[in-house]
Write a structure and sequence with these properties.
binds 9-methylguanine; alpha/beta; single chain; 12% strand; 8 strands
């Protein structure tokens, strides 16, 4: 009997950051061009979904005004829509950005706040698109200062269950909900590893599970490598997450992850 849980519908979500620090030196136009080129490359590399974000979520990151976030993300969504039907996720927590993004062609709202910020749950319900609800302890500014849990798996699971209930109560149908344990968002390395080991338990929530560990600090700390040398570590955890029950992997290195996951999918097709 197999102890693996490989989703028959495993997908790769490619990360497209439009924050200026994601691209060298450029101003707004250079950022747009770089982000569009990057999006085209991810599509060619086999991404199933693009996740477009205009506000950094790194620990300690500075919040961005709505106008700036819109300026970074909306023209890019419009430009991608002119060349591709790929599902587009908007990584935002602002109702105004959600509305403009869906209007421009986005199909999914990725909320690191699990739609807890004012007006966001109502906006997402009204827009009628799927949502990703992520767990985070604290805020992006402070979350890595001293994360504490009695039982990280139980607490993350309870939180996600309560946000799924809130989404259902707001009128978002269950088939439009994705849950995410939020690797690196208010968690130590031990918390992240415990959650990874227990990913299968989160499937009891009854919705698809998204996992995002690509290039994150936990890999950097374990391997003692800077962000640009975390490819192999990122591929390893993507494969582990896929074998432990994740349905969607949010990654930077799409081509490499698509190949790695093709091997996992092949294993999933083998009957025991
Ligand atoms: C925006 N963002 C950065 N990391 C993420 C993660 O792990 N999950 C989701 N849903 N979004 C993330």
């Amino acid at each position: 009997m197999s102890r693996l849980t490989i989703s028959p519908d495993l997908r790769v979500m490619g990360v497209v950051n439009t924050t200026p620090d994601s691209f060298s030196d450029g101003g707004q136009f250079e950022c747009f061009e770089s982000a569009l080129d990057h999006s085209k490359r991810l599509i060619e590399a086999g991404a199933d979904i693009l996740d477009i974000g205009g506000e950094s979520t790194r620990p300690g990151a500075r919040p961005v005004e709505e106008a700036e976030e819109r300026e970074r993300t909306i023209p890019l969504i419009q430009a991608i829509r002119e060349i591709s039907n790929i599902p587009i996720s908007i990584d935002t927590n602002k109702p105004g950005v959600m509305r403009a993004a869906v209007d421009a062609g986005a199909n999914l709202i990725n909320s690191i706040w699990a739609l807890r910020l004012p007006g966001s749950l109502e906006a997402a319900a009204e827009l009628g698109v799927p949502v990703c609800l992520m767990h985070m302890q604290g805020t992006p500014e402070t979350m890595q200062q001293n994360p504490v849990y009695d039982d990280v798996v139980a607490e993350v699971k309870d939180f996600l269950a309560s946000r799924i209930d809130a989404a259902l109560d707001a009128g978002i149908p269950q088939e439009h909900i994705i849950a995410d344990p939020g690797f690196g968002f208010g968690k130590t390395i031990e918390h992240n590893l415990t959650l990874l080991r227990s990913l299968g338990e989160l499937r009891q929530l009854g919705v698809p599970i998204l996992a995002g560990m690509s290039r994150k600090g936990m890999i950097g700390t374990i391997l003692n490598k800077p962000v640009e040398q975390r490819l192999y570590g990122s591929l390893s955890v993507a494969v582990m997450a896929a074998m432990l029950g994740a349905d969607i992997l949010r990654v930077h290195d799409v081509a490499e992850t698509v190949d790695a996951l093709a091997m996992v999918k092949a294993l999933g097709r083998v009957s025991s």
